[in-house]
Design goal:
The protein is of the alpha/beta class and 139 residues long. It has one domain: Response regulator (Rossmann fold, 3-Layer(aba) Sandwich). It is built from 5 helices and 5 strands; from the N terminus they run E-H-E-H-E-H-E-H-E-H. Strands 2-1-3-4-5 form a 5-stranded parallel β-sheet, sandwiched between helices. The structure holds magnesium ion. Magnesium ion binds next to loops.
């Protein structure tokens, strides 16, 4: 798939290759450019050198997990407002509160269906664009 500069760039960080592949297929089909990371450290590297428009971040990864990655990102000025979608395999009560308190923009339980994934990503990108416009106008 060709990559044009107009395509939003999405970073997929998940330690399971099959999960990354599924997410990549859906997102590329929806017209996004995709880069991948297989663990937390790589996610930080890819975010820093790729400058994605949005990140899909698996919470459960060995080593630096999704919460650790998000904390590191939010500590850097250029990632403070970046839309980051948490992907969680667990559906435990209380997770949503913990996820949102940590600073994620939104979350989806895995496996997320293609439609809900596309809609969530599109909405997050729209809201992110609107919010950066607002910040520019009030700056
Ligand atoms: Mg995982």
């Amino acid at each position: 798939m060709s990559t044009s500069p107009e395509k939003p760039l999405i970073l997929i960080a998940d330690d399971r290759p099959s999960s990354r592949e599924l997410l990549r297929l859906v997102l590329e089909h929806a017209g996004y450019a995709v880069i991948e990371a297989e663990d937390g450290e790589e996610a930080l590297d890819r975010a820093r050198d790729g400058n994605p428009d949005l990140i899909l971040l698996d919470l459960q990864m060995p080593g630096l997990d999704g919460y650790g990655v998000l904390a590191a990102l939010r500590g850097e000025a250029r990632f403070r407002n970046l839309p980051v979608l948490a992907l969680t395999a667990s559906a435990m009560r209380g997770d949503r509160e913990r996820i949102m308190d940590a600073g994620f923009t939104d979350y989806l339980a895995k496996p997320a269906g293609p439609e809900v994934l596309r809609e969530t990503v599109a909405r997050m990108l729209r809201e992110s664009a609107a919010q950066s416009l607002e910040r520019e106008e009030t700056a």
